[in-house]
Amino acid sequence: MASNLGTANQEGGGSEKTPWQEHTAPDGRKYYYNTETKVSSWTKPDELKTAAEQSLASCPWKEYKTEQGRSYYYNSETKESSWVCPPELQTVLENQTQSESSAQVAVETEAVKKTETSSTTPVAAANEKQEPAAPSKVDRDREIAREALKELLREKNISSTASWEYASRQIGADARFHLLKRSNERKQVFNEYKAQKGREERDLQRQKARESREAFRNLLENNEKVYPDMRWRHCCELFGDHAAFKAVHMSERREIFDDVIYQLGRKEKAEEQEKRDRHQKTMKEIYAGMKGVTYKTTWAKCLEMLDTNADFTDDDSLQGLDKEDALVAFEEHIRQLERVMSCTSSHTPGSVLYSPAEGCCAYLTSDLLTA
User: Fold this and answer.
1) Neighbours of 57 (CB within 10 A)
2) What is the per-residue pLDDT across 191-228, written as a single tens digit (0 to 9) for each?
3) Alpha carbon 260 to its chain's center
4) Which of these, 56, 158, 204, 297, has the minimum number of CB atoms within 10 Å of its CB?
5) Three-state secondary structure call for residue 104
6) What is the b/e burial string over 224-255, where b = at least 16 CB atoms within 10 angstroms of the residue's CB?
């Protein structure tokens, strides 16, 4: 038979219309049906709960029983457990008892006034919407107990390699250990915890290994004593007692060292090549400005002229100039002058000639030919 709860009790004696109705299933369990959404549920909706029931639902303290039937209390927020009913829960339970007594009187009065017919019967509600396969209270309590046991294992920081016997000794005195009545259920939860804990520990180990490798690499890259031609033996002598050196596995140390040395060598070569290119470009500009240099000028003669050339002697960027770089720039300048000279065989002074060096057309004059 259905108990049509068309109104929800509010504090202060008022009432509010609600589409939820309470029904009784064939097995005697209560379920709730919403006439608007056509949804049914085993859980009592908030609209039908009394103020006391809502206070109980919001209270973090809940009552549980051990295998021996002894009651204890667990706080889902603070993770505390107690054999004595906490004052907060005691107050809520007393208010609920008083509220249930008042509600029973109201239900009996309403039953006298109700007619024999009802707009929606339990059978009709069941036809409109199939009863949900909602978990029973036992299943919900079991799931809460499983999570509480896992939380207890995490609080005690039980390792993934620990045995069940060791874990039992560490957590057996806690009330949450006894939420699950069967030993095989506890072991199943313990094995699930170990699998998850093992994954977390492996992830942590990999993270620490990455951080250790990065620290060792930074040590080598930022140390002035490390150079491109350094030998592994020298590195071990220099950094063998350093914490970053010891934190990395032996095989990985050598691999990181070889890579750092290779990168340092590449960097040094790139810097050296950039320096040589810069010197050659500067020397070409100096040769182009030297009026006494012609396509017939020898390298020895050019060196004598450079000793008295202010552009060359006063340029600080040419400190450490390699003579080979100066010679390469000189030879390219001479070849350019020779190309210009070869083009004059079919042209007369004053005619137009394209100069590859200048990238534009220029007039060939007697000064250009003898410069």
Assistant:
1) 12
2) 999 999 999 999 999 999 999 999 999 999 999 999 99
3) 27
4) 204
5) helix
6) eebeeebeeeebeeebeeeebbeebeeeebee
CA dist 226 → 221, 223, 241 (Å): 7, 6, 16
* Token pair for 269: 């070569």
Helices (H), the chain: 51-58, 87-113, 122-128, 137-155, 164-171, 183-221, 232-239, 243-246, 250-289, 299-307, 310-313, 323-343, 366-370
In tens, the pLDDT along 318-358 reads 867 888 888 898 899 889 888 888 876 555 554 444 444 44
Q: Is the pLDDT of residue 69 over 90?
A: no
Of 9-23, 108-122, 302-316, the range with the highest mean pLDDT is 302-316
Q: Is 148 exposed, middle or buried (0-12, 13-18, 19+ CB in 10 A)?
A: buried
Is the Cβ–Cβ distance between 28 and 15 less than 8 Å? no
State both tokens at 370: 């003898």
| Whether 326 contacts 281, CB under 8 Å | no
The pLDDT value recorded for residue 166 is 93
Q: Do the Cβ atoms of 253 and 245 come closer than 8 Å?
A: yes
Let me know the angle formed at the C-alpha of 355 by 347 and 315, rounded to the nearest 5 degrees. Answer: 135
Confidence of residue 63 (pLDDT cuts 50, 70, 90): confident
Do 42 and 25 contact (CB within 8 A), yes or no?
A: no
Residue 99, helix vs strand vs coil: helix
